[in-house]
Amino acid sequence: MSIEIKIRKSEPIDRALRRMKKKLDRENIIKGVRAKRYHEKPCEKRRRKEKVQAFTAMLRRRHEG
Questions:
Q1: Domain-embedded: residue 55
Q2: 2-34: b or e for each residue (b if 16 or more CB lie within 10 Å)?
Q3: Is the pLDDT of residue 45 over 70?
Q4: What is the pTM assigned to this prediction?
């Protein structure tokens, strides 16, 4: 899977890099690569997912009202 960014006429390089980074973020490519860097045991995956779910639930409760 390759990401392709077309640089527009007279577009600064830093703006094109920013567009590329946003595209990588939206497609979760960087997260996937970092997650696959090391082996993670199934119990660690489950623990991490539970921790994320608890955090998002806490944020929802906090912002409900």
A1: yes
A2: eeeeeeeeeeeeeeeeeeeeeeeeeeeeeeeee
A3: yes
A4: 0.50
